[in-house]
Amino acid sequence: MKPAMMEYYAPTGLDEAATLLAEAAADGGKVIAGGQSLIPMMNFRLVRPPVLIDLGGVAELTSMEVTGSHLSLGAMVTTATVASSSLVRRDWPLLAHAATWVGHDQIRNRGTVGGSVVHADPSAEMPAAMLLADARLEVRSATGSRTVDAADFFWGYMSTALEEDEILVRLSLEIPPPGTRWGFREFAQRHGDFAEAGAACLLPPGGRPRVVAFGAADRPFRAAETESALAADPAADAETLRRAVSRDAEQAGVADRAKIRLLAAMVLRAAAMARD
Ligand SMILES: Cc1cc2nc3c(=O)[nH]c(=O)nc-3n(C[C@H](O)[C@H](O)[C@H](O)COP(=O)(O)OP(=O)(O)OC[C@H]3O[C@@H](n4cnc5c(N)ncnc54)[C@H](O)[C@@H]3O)c2cc1C
């Protein structure tokens, strides 16, 4: 299958892109980033945007920098860049590691961190990492800008707080304190497949542990009970953590016992990786 006919625009600035989207959004017009999710959906005619606005030429969306205590990523930074960047590997090694789990080289070379976050697949690594990082998402329309916390961004299966005329511009992540330990594990049938369950864990020295689970519910979620168990006892045993994960998963609406067991195994491994 090939996509239905559409008009194609290639703006070179953010203002121009936002204006084009303001005109096209009401009729289903969309921006396209790496196209690694949108093009397959268009090929299968799951979506038929009459207008495509290509963000590939918008330079404002490709920068990556450390400003003060934050790592700032333009939405069009590719997953391959996130995985290989010395900046990200130094300041947010968990994010760089998580990016290596996204699909294959070809997908990572074109797919973008912003595209993955907006696409909001519940099994995707980048949304989970953004939730773990408490990232702040800067979004922009023709009428203004606003900032959304990652905790408020993911609404459900491929559903987010982004309005249809808004563009995700930038993601800002506070850099964890020195000495922060981290772990990341996921299970997929084959390398490069979407995760069937995964977990990311951050253990800041003297701070509250943070744990995010993904691939199990309709969106990634913070595992608050598991975080409390690790806060109460950083060396919490496997059975204690399994019970905590089970409660977290049930609160997130996961009913499948096999899925919960798999998720618990991933959380235990991520926590062990962080503690080792
Ligand atoms: C074979 C295969 C395997 C894959 N495996 C994985 C995997 O294991 N893990 C994983 O996480 N992903 C996986 N993916 C998906 C891949 O990571 C996609 O690249 C990603 O989900 C979307 O990023 P993109 O830049 O390609 O976005 P696009 O496909 O261009 O866009 C996706 C959606 O986001 C919107 N969008 C994009 N950028 C913006 C923006 N800045 N502002 C507003 N809206 C925007 C688009 O309008 C569209 O609705 C896989 C894809 C394929 C084809």
UniProtKB/TrEMBL annotation:
Superkingdom field: Bacteria
Any GO MF annotation of the entry: oxidoreductase activity
InterPro entries: CO_DH_flav_C, CO_DH_flav_C_dom_sf, Diverse_Substr_Oxidored, FAD-bd_PCMH, FAD-bd_PCMH-like_sf, FAD-bd_PCMH_sub1, FAD-bd_PCMH_sub2, Mopterin_DH_FAD-bd
Keywords: FAD, Flavoprotein, Oxidoreductase
Record field: transmembrane: none
Pfam family, one: FAD_binding_5
Domain named FAD-binding PCMH-type: residues: 1-178
The name this protein goes by in its record: FAD-binding PCMH-type domain-containing protein
Taxonomic classification: Bacteria, Bacillati, Actinomycetota, Actinomycetes, Streptosporangiales
